[in-house]
Amino acid sequence: MTRTALVTGASSGIGAATARLLARSGARVLLHGRDEDRLAALAAETDGTALPADLGLSGAATDLAERALAVTGSVDLLVNNAGLGWAGPLPELPAGRLAELVAVNLAAPIELTRALLPAMLDHGRGQLVFVSSIAGRTGVAGEAVYAATKSGVDAFAESLRFELHGTGVTVGVVVPGVVRTEFFTRRGRPYTRGIPRPVSAERVAAAVVHAARRPGDYYLPRWLRFPAALRGAAPGVYRTLAARFGAES
């Protein structure tokens, strides 16, 4: 049976790379994104189905789930990848952008998962993969709201792991640091630090596919698990080091 995968944020970056990798593995890909032209081109390349939508709009995630199920009848793998960023002092964050960050980065993955999970449970199988961020595990100056949404995704995914234990539905989380995509241009501030070095979208996509096969937490690069672990084990030490060496992006 051909596996069906819904990939959000597939019109560029990590989502597009993930969709290509899944298609090469034989999966039928449902492609969500906001750029209809890019999405149509990727659908032609992968023999997938384009499902354009703006997840920042109320009800868009539930509607996307219904459209996906109408196309294939079931979704075996949901890749919650779509995300937005914004960088700058919190008082300068426009209210509309704040609401959009929360809607796309946090509310949409929750709503999509809630809508698609019942069919997975009925079938006794399914995979949920969430693309999070190291910002959600360590905090980043100038990106408080973005980091908060990603931390929320982490908590949601971890809670689901407990809830879904023994059901046949698995949960994987990919935690990238800096990825070479258009994200930093779109957030309004380029990435200027030397560490961590940016990784390719294809490398993150490979981790996404691996997380679907072998659920767990995957950091990119892998050494990022150490500052995350230090923050949990010795938050005072972590904050001292972060203040000294910088926790900005």
* Number of self-contained structural domains: 1
End-to-end separation in angstroms reads: 43 Å
Q: What gyration radius follows from the Cα positions, in whole Å?
A: 17 Å
Query: How do the helices and strands follow one another from N- to C-terminus?
Result: EHEHEHEHEHHEHHEHH
Largest sheet: 7 strands, parallel
CATH level-4 homologous superfamily: NAD(P)-binding Rossmann-like Domain
Beta-strand share of residues: 5-15%
CATH architecture: 3-Layer(aba) Sandwich
- Strand line-up of the largest beta sheet: 3-2-1-4-5-6-7
- Uncertain spans: none
Q: What oligomeric state do the depicted chains represent?
A: single chain
Q: Regarding CATH, which class? A: Alpha Beta
Provide the residue-averaged pLDDT. Answer: 93
Shape: globular
In short:
With 249 residues, the protein is an alpha/beta fold.
Describe it:
- 51% of the residues lie in helices and 14% in strands.
- By secondary structure, the protein is an alpha/beta fold.
- It has one domain (4-245): NAD(P)-binding Rossmann-like Domain (Rossmann fold).
- Helix 4 (95-123) packs parallel to helix 6 (144-163).
- It starts with a strand and ends with a helix.
